[in-house]
Design brief:
CATH topology of one domain in chain A: Amidase signature (AS) enzymes
Shape of chain B: flat
Largest sheet of chain A: 11 strands, mixed
Order of helices and strands of chain A: HHHEHEHEHEHEEHEHEHHHHEHHEEH
Number of strands of chain A: 11
Distance between the termini of chain A: 26 Å
Helix content of chain A: 25-40%
Structural class of chain B: mainly alpha
Structural class of chain A: alpha/beta
Oligomer: heterodimer
Radius of gyration of chain A: 21 Å
Largest interface: A-B, 71 and 50 residues
CATH class of one domain in chain A: Alpha Beta
Order of helices and strands of chain B: HHH
């Protein structure tokens, strides 16, 4: 098989071909770079391509393999990273003009883990600016087009990461998820996307948006591929004080457990609230597949779901207003050319460097934290967040995992919701609650695409630290629909 | 001013954003709509509910009090908009 044809295969198959020396990492990386060069002018999935360093990393891996040395589980496969993730010597913009020329002096822990596992970083992927958005239309580098239908959005904020997998530029990309930014684009582009338990994956070196919610995770074409990537990414990092202490169990080891006897909770609230009938029908069909595989469906209730979006937009914006205070034109990032005095330099550098959505969120967060409003807004939201977490805890007394739609709609048209920020926020209505509760969750494709329809995502949510249980449930479904 | 009005000029000053007059006007409308939506939270009874401080119960870990290598000076300065080779340069603050 040619290196180009191998790009259409899964990460697992690419790894097997590399290990069997059927292809070199250099050839596979060259093929990936050629595809990116061909598609990127149209899809705009990448912001920065790192041709020279990628080919040199690939050649180094090939040389190691020839010398008989052990290569990590990624074995020399090309990998793309969302541009929120710092990469030493490689421009990292967070899709913001304010970081247009920023070249990190260090690797984020997740970038270092990808490299030491044998991943070849080919470039940095487009996204909404500072991960603030649900359609990838808030990027300073222009929107990404959905490879499934180029008139549509790939979702956001990790739109480039989902599009790069859907277009088979890379079998593995990394995204970040704060309120659904991995799962929703995975759903729109028909790929698998996983947000691990909060704290499972290090946030060190990842551009901070909302620190109590941000989490890095993989986007892949298959569930098995996601499991392999999770085993590379997860684990304690002393550099991140919120990192969970202790070694996680292998997720890949859980792939074949099956769903016999598994109790799957179905939250009624996720099938109303503006969920398209087409989406609900596809998810219900997936649930009947689970029943056929031996799982039991249980009705559960998550009564505070209607308050999740409002809660999120106070907590995430408050944390963002604090995190983004660092962009002041002093230590790194853009400085305005004309100003009068220090405060004016801050204000003009930020106003010129940030896009509209970032300004909106920074101001909303500043307002929510300001004197006189803190109790009414921020503290109130943190109390409702507790109630949302309790809903999940109560539901998990009756079930092992929860299944629901990832997004209430399929991929929206480009430009369709940009005029109304609130309508855009409501796209995240089904992904935000699990983020607020810090739970592991994922999206996997469940639409019957034979009729040429758009992808639909099935969302699975598990109790804290139960990535293995979630992945085994996802793998069972995937096996059934691809071989059944 | 309605219940959900926001003094954008004041908030922009706190957030260190120099806005154009047209932006102030537009953000007033957009942020006003957000606040109106967010007001839904006032319907929720949160008496005797603790605010979440961390999504999962976790104890902040300690590390040994040992110095570790920091970024070398030149690397720390390499992204700075203005530097004299030893420090970040900013506009004069005191006369």
């Amino acid at each position: 098989m040619s290196a180009d044809a191998l790009l259409d295969r899964s990460l697992t198959e690419q790894v097997a071909a590399l290990r069997a020396r059927e292809v070199t990492s250099a050839a596979l990386t060259e093929a990936a770079l050629a595809r990116i060069g061909r598609d990127n002018p149209r899809l705009n999935a990448g912001i920065t391509v790192d041709r020279v360093a990628a080919l040199s990393a690939a050649a180094a891996i090939d040389a190691k393999r020839s010398a008989g040395a052990e290569i990590g589980p990624l074995s020399g496969v090309p990998v793309g990273l969302k541009d929120m993730i710092c990469t030493e010597g490689l421009r990292t913009t967070a899709a913001s003009k304010i970081l247009d020329t920023f070249i990190p002096p260090y690797d984020a822990t997740v970038a270092a883990r990808i490299r030491s596992a044998g991943g070849v970083i080919v470039g940095k992927l487009n996204q909404d600016e500072f991960a603030m958005g649900s359609s990838n239309e808030n990027s300073a580098y222009g929107p990404v087009r959905n490879p499934v239908d180029e008139t549509r959005s790939p979702g956001g904020s990790s739109g480039g990461s989902a599009a790069a997998v859907a277009a088979r530029h890379c079998a593995l990309t990394l995204g970040t998820d704060t309120g659904g930014s991995i799962r929703q684009p995975a759903s729109f582009c028909g790929v698998v996307g996983v947000k691990p338990t909060y704290g499972r994956v290090s946030r060190w070196g990842v551009v901070a948006f909302a620190s109590s919610l941000d989490q890095v995770g993989p986007l892949t074409a298959t569930v098995e591929d996601a499991a392999i990537a999770l085993d590379v990414l997860m684990g304690h990092d002393p550099k991140d004080s919120t990192s969970i202490v202790g070694a996680p169990e292998s997720v890949a080891a859980a792939l074949d457990r099956g769903v016999g006897g598994l109790k799957i909770g179905i939250p009624a609230e996720y099938f109303t609230q503006g969920c398209d009938e087409e989406v609900a029908a596809a998810v219900r069909k997936a649930l009947s597949t689970y029943e056929r595989l031996g799982a039991t469906l249980v009705d559960v209730s998550l009564p505070h779901t209607p308050y999740a979006v409002a809660t999120y937009y106070l907590i995430a914006t408050a944390e963002a207003s604090s995190n983004l205070a660092r962009y002041d034109g002093v230590r790194y990032g853009r400085r305005a050319e004309a100003y009068s005095g220090l405060a004016d330099m801050y204000g003009r550098s930020r106003a010129e460097g940030f896009g509209d959505e970032v300004k909106r969120r920074v101001m909303l967060g500043t307002y929510a934290l300001s004197a006189g409003y803190y109790d009414a807004y921020y503290l109130k939201a943190q109390r409702v967040r507790t109630l949302i977490s309790r809903d999940f805890a109560r539901a998990f007394e009756r079930c092992d995992v929860i299944a629901a739609p990832t997004s209430p709609v399929t991929a929206i048209g480009l430009g369709e919701r940009v005029a109304d920020p609130l309508q855009m926020y409501l796209l995240d209505v089904f992904t935000i609650p699990a983020s607020l509760a810090g739970l592991p969750c994922m999206s996997l494709p469940c639409a019957d695409r034979d009729g040429g329809g758009l992808p639909i995502g099935l969302q699975l949510i598990a109790p804290p630290l139960q990535e293995g249980r979630m992945i085994s449930a996802a793998a069972a479904y995937e096996r059934e629909v691809s071989h059944g | 001013m309605s219940d959900h009005a926001i003094d954008v000029q004041r908030v922009a000053e706190l957030a260190r954003l120099v806005l154009e007059p047209a932006e102030v006007e537009r953000f007033e409308v957009e942020l006003g709509a957000c606040l109106e939506y967010i007001a839904v939270l006032q319907q929720v009874d949160t008496d005797r509910v603790e605010p979440t401080s961390h999504p999962l119960p976790q104890v902040t870990p300690f590390r040994s009090d040992v110095a570790s290598a920091a970024l070398p000076l030149e690397r720390a300065l390499e992204n700075a908009p203005a530097t004299d080779g030893e420090s970040f340069l900013v506009p004069r603050v005191v006369g």
